[in-house]
Design a protein that fits this description.
254 residues, alpha/beta, Trna Endonuclease, Chain: A, domain 1, 6 helices
């Protein structure tokens, strides 16, 4: 996993690939803003911020839930790596019912589950090893041992792997981007602009989304009405970079 600085450098590199800046003599990694770019003896600041999906009405942050799911799978894999098991593939389907109009807090993952679920999952796997070329599906509706946060557990033995391998998926409804939410992100950074300008002559805001990372994905092409609106800001330029699709959208100043 990238550190924050590594992520920022990767984002800047992609940005420069898509929108080349001429006559650069020096690029310095900094804080507030994240980069200082010297161009013809002038210093341009570039502040990078990540755009995550806003929390639903139930207050369950998708970013946090995706991180917890990943940790459960990673810790489960570590246990499996130390077990004498055949080469099986395991797929864990978590209950992402926060997209449905039901009491979603019942399905919320917490740090407690990161500690408890890997052992529970791996014990169920060991008890349900399929025959060669076969698969076993465990569903929460039929199995009291599966907690409510896990919808199903599929264990396959088809010879595709050389050792046990466990995975899950990230997915759900990809929302469009609202102008109100986008303005709130811009305003939060705009309030810090005076501090940024103490280090540079001008400053740009680069907003990072990623169509390949669910918690950072927005249907930007379905949000063109939002992207074509004018926004209140004092940055020299405000740009949205979709790192997955390698596209840049520039916002207009109101």
């Amino acid at each position: 996993m990238l550190t924050q600085k590594e992520f920022e450098q990767k984002t800047l590199n992609l940005f420069r690939d898509l929108l080349p800046l001429k006559d650069i003599s020096k690029v310095t990694s900094d804080e507030a803003p994240d980069f200082l770019v010297t161009i013809n003896n002038n210093v341009l600041g570039i502040e990078i911020t990540e755009l995550y999906q806003p929390p639903p009405d139930d207050g369950i942050y998708i970013q946090q839930q995706e991180i917890l799911k990943s940790r459960i799978v990673i810790f489960s894999q570590k246990i499996l790596d130390n077990e004498d098991l055949p080469a099986i593939e395991i797929y864990v389907s978590f209950n992402d019912s926060h997209w449905l109009n039901i009491d979603t807090k019942r399905f919320k993952l917490t740090g407690k589950h990161v500690k408890e679920f890997p052992k529970l999952i791996t014990n169920l796997i060991k008890e349900n090893i399929p025959e060669e070329g076969d698969a076993i599906n465990l569903y929460a509706v039929d199995n009291d041992e599966l907690p409510i946060q896990i919808n199903s557990l599929k264990i396959s033995r088809h010879g595709f792997y050389s050792k046990p391998c466990i995975n899950t998926s990230k997915g759900g409804i990809v929302p469009s981007l609202s102008s109100e939410y986008l303005q709130s992100i811009i305003t939060g950074k705009n309030n810090k602009l005076a501090n940024y300008l103490e280090k540079c002559d001008d400053c740009w805001l680069l907003i990072s989304t990623d169509d390949f990372k669910y918690e950072k994905s927005f249907d930007l092409h379905a949000s063109m009405e939002t992207l074509e609106q004018s926004y209140e800001f004092d940055f020299g330029r405000v740009l949205i970079l979709d790192e997955g699709l390698r596209e840049i959208f520039e916002l207009s100043k109101g």
